[in-house]
Specification:
binds magnesium ion, 11 strands, four-stranded antiparallel sheet, binds adenosine-5'-diphosphate, 11 helices, alpha/beta, binds iron/sulfur cluster
């Protein structure tokens, strides 16, 4: 059951990367351009909860996770973990907290060192963080992490090299290496997209099970809305650096309000053969985080845009509130009148 304690709170997070300037631009003193990869993202995540961050490639999902992890520095906004603002915390103070925030990467073929046996892979983070005073104590922690990740009995796997494992097993080893540190927050960046379809559900069920004891929260990054709908409690739909719709997973997929979410859902095959989706192909320019349109950022591709959409940058909120001031905080609990935290950033929703 989801605990009410908020584990992660991200407020108006911004991350930008400099665009490399050709020498001619520098000589002509043309202003530097920026990729606004994360452009005002707000959401929260409770213990025991899985929130899915969903959006097409390039919308800023990985940058959001990397910024939360402080692998990339935020250019604005705040990140609060377990009540502590870590946005600009020094690396020394951050170190013990970093242990509690672990990332699971997309590609277990890249994230595991091919020269390391499973034992060494899971032991490495323990050594880095000085956990386990003796070899035998660490051995116990390694075995328990492997078994929590579904690799049981651990003795079967300890001495294997990555090339002796399947893709699914490799990803479980990577998850075990994260679990060995007893994290409170797992950031899973497209954790099954490189895996064989037959093992995906198993790995997703593992992540789902891990958060159900209520201690750990999972931010699941995916481009697949049906995966999000199946496993997550809440879904945050991201477009061009911003969350444009957020709410309880079921509500977002059964009653989508943002035209972008509707378009994403229209291409998800429906399990009910009587229901036929009409795929809505988005036309217009490919979104470009270097030149985010004024007004609503979705306007160039929006099938229902009106003139006012060019003037107002809609914020996340209950329907009808998007045009008024800042306040896009996907808190999941601010709405009333039956919305139960379902929020949308669209002037016409
Ligand atoms: N290190 C970087 N330097 C410059 N641009 C980057 C960097 N990392 C990501 N980007 C750009 O930022 C945008 C968001 O990327 P990313 O966060 O990887 O999106 P996603 O994970 O949703 O595919 C993209 O336009 C990408 O090209
Ligand atoms: S605000 Fe306007 S352009 Fe933006 S999604 Fe809504 S209708 Fe479309
Ligand atoms: Mg990514």
């Amino acid at each position: 059951m989801t605990s009410e304690r908020i584990l992660l709170e991200v407020d108006d997070l911004r991350t930008r990367y400099p665009v490399r300037r050709p020498i001619a631009d520098r000589l002509a003193r043309r202003p530097r351009q920026w990729v606004r990869a994360v452009d005002g993202v707000s959401f929260s995540l409770r213990r025991g909860e899985m929130v899915a961050l969903v959006g097409e490639s390039g919308c800023g999902k990985t940058s959001t996770a990397q910024t939360i992890l402080r692998m990339v520095e935020a250019t604005g906004g705040t990140i609060t973990v377990d009540g502590q603002d870590i946005t600009t915390m020094s690396q020394r103070r951050l170190r013990p907290l970093r242990r509690g925030i672990q990332m699971v990467y997309q590609d277990p073929y890249e994230s595991l060192d091919p020269r390391f046996r499973v034992r060494q892979t899971v032991e490495e983070p323990l050594l880095v963080h000085g956990i386990g005073t003796s070899k035998s104590e660490r051995e116990e922690l390694i075995s328990s992490a492997l078994e929590r990740a579904g690799l049981a009995p651990a003795s079967l796997y300890l001495n294997r090299y990555p090339h002796e494992l399947s893709g699914g097993q490799r990803q479980r080893v990577a998850i075990a290496a994260a679990l060995a540190l007893d994290p409170v927050l797992l950031l899973a960046d497209e954790p099954v997209s490189m895996l064989d379809v037959s093992v995906r559900a198993g790995v997703l069920s593992l992540l789902d099970g891990l958060r159900r004891d209520g201690r750990l929260g999972v931010l699941m990054i995916t481009h697949d809305l049906s995966t999000a709908a199946h496993f997550a409690d809440r879904i945050a739909v991201m477009y061009l650096g911003r969350i444009v719709e957020y709410g309880p997973a079921r509500q977002v997929v059964t009653d989508p309000r943002h035209p972008y979410t509707k378009a994403l859902l229209s291409v998800v095959p429906n399990r009910d053969p009587r229901v036929r989706n009409v795929a809505q192909i988005l036309s217009g320019e490919t979104p470009n985080p270097i030149a985010i349109p004024a007004g609503c950022r979705f306007r160039p591709r929006c099938p229902i845009a009106e003139a006012s959409c060019a003037d107002v940058d809609p914020v996340l909120g209950p329907p009808g509130s998007a045009g008024s001031g800042r306040g896009g905080s996907a808190s999941g609990g601010s709405a009333s009148g039956g919305w139960a935290g379902h929020e949308v950033a669209c002037l016409l929703a």
